[in-house]
Known about the structure:
- This protein has helices spanning 7-16, 27-32, 65-69, 74-80, 131-136, 161-175, 188-199, 224-234, 237-247, 251-254, 257-264, 272-282, 312-322, 338-341, 343-356, 368-374, 378-393, 408-416, 418-444; strands at residues 84-90, 94-102, 114-117, 141-144, 181-186, 204-210, 299-304, 327-331.
- The protein has 19 helices and 8 strands.
- It starts with 6 loop residues before the first helix and ends with a helix.
- The chain is of the alpha/beta class.
- β3, α5 and β4 form a beta-alpha-beta unit.
- The radius of gyration is 24 Å and the shape is globular.
Amino acid sequence: LRRELPRYMRSLAALMLCLPAGNAVSSTALRAAARPALVPSASPRVSGAMTAATATARPKFMPSPQAVAELTESATKDMLDRVEAMPLDLPSYGVVEASFVRTGVAPSEGTPPVVLLHGFDSSCLEFRRTLPKLEALGVEAYALDLLGWGFGDTGGGDVSVEAKRAALLEFRRQVLGDRQMTLLGVSLGAAVVIDFNAVHSDAVASAILVDPQGFIDGAPPVPEPFARGGIRVLGSWPLRSLANQLAYADTDAFATDDAIRVGLLHCARPSWEDDSVSWLLGGGYSVSSLVPRLAPKPTAILWGRQDEILPPAEFAPKFVAALPGAAFRWVEECGHSPHLEQPDALAAAVRAFLDSGPDAVAGDDDVSEIVRLANRGALEKLADGVKELDAFLDTPILDPNERGGPLEPLKAFVRSEPETAQVAASVLALTFFFVLARGLVAVLG
């Protein structure tokens, strides 16, 4: 069923995907506690990151102890203990709060800091499984809440594309000391990377696009009177559950109730609803024409082979065509969320990228088949469609050899009386097509 979602629903999911964010504890306890390492003390770690400024404050909003008590993943607690906040004074937009988590790794001469950008309506804690891996590999990295999402306070101000761009630029100035950045964007976070690079190319050293969204322009069209109701649905359990089911290849392991609870944490931020409505009505990112501007930068594109949110067969060829010099790599046994489903692979890719460039990233780089499919002519696509339909029609609706289930009495009848069952199936099929034909005649007049 998930594979057959209409394109619009997949596009909507791509923009509204809310991945797990993290855990929280009471703000009083957090201020009193020492900040623990993201990795065990035995792991390699460099303390005292040399940045332009040290943020020691906590975000104004933190999830309630009651919400945290229901969560189970220890990685979220460990990471949330390290969330920092810093006020950013944005020209034309006022003062906002940046919230982020950094690795305890000092800057290295000649190696840009890595800034991790999450997807739509999520938070920096989306990287809770990847950031500890990066720290263990000695990577200076910052998982940043995008303005209007996550835990940073916006004061109810502007959260537009332009404001998000300004916030990232000011974060670079205040926290990174105006150093060039390697920007890593996941899903809609990749659109942030593409947009930022188009305006502030001098601030970008290189880019890593992970299951990127760059060729679905604009937010889903929602009439203004229904926008607020739509945002409340966005913060509901059923929609988050659907997003989880779509996000992973291994849904049994990752699409859990705990993941849903984690994904809802930031929705309790006081201005979350107003910020989300403002964003939805603002039109969102439209960056398809800007993707080629990344071409001069060292760029890697990583894609979960089983991604059902942004199917690689549909979208990857567009990135390959727009960025022919980029290094493309498949992430195996992975859906839309390599940073959550395959964090070791992603962290290793980042380390190799920083050390030796995009081509050093390990993995299968063969995209010939999906590029061939994307470049088919109309007649070839029609022929392939006929083959797919023929295969579908040859697929048994009911397999009597599979025992059990609610249809077992019917299966038993097919096994015991195969000839009678075949006659009955033929009669039902003929009846169906007769009713279908009558309906078409009535509709067409």
